[in-house]
Write a structure and sequence with these properties.
It is a single chain. With 88 residues, the chain is an alpha+beta fold. 24% of the residues lie in helices and 24% in strands. The chain has a 5-stranded mixed sheet with strand order 2-1-5-3-4. The termini are far apart.
Amino acid sequence: MTLLLSGTLQRFAGFERELTLPARTLAEALRHAEERYPQLRQVLRDSGGRLRGTHRVLINGELVSAPDDHLSLQDGDTVEILTAIAGG
């Protein structure tokens, strides 16, 4: 599967936009990305280990309203993580 990171997250992943990962669930994809780039964990997850509310997950271009770590993925799926930017 392919994991795409928003511009904000890329700086925590060696400025890579696209990661190819061996994963069958969203949890596995995130774990592999966090193992490769440990600094991603601090910005992706809250203190309870849950995906922070500032992130939106899209699978194959469709927004996942309540991303569950156990969400199944198929070969060829693309997961994109977008980060909401606040400001004035």
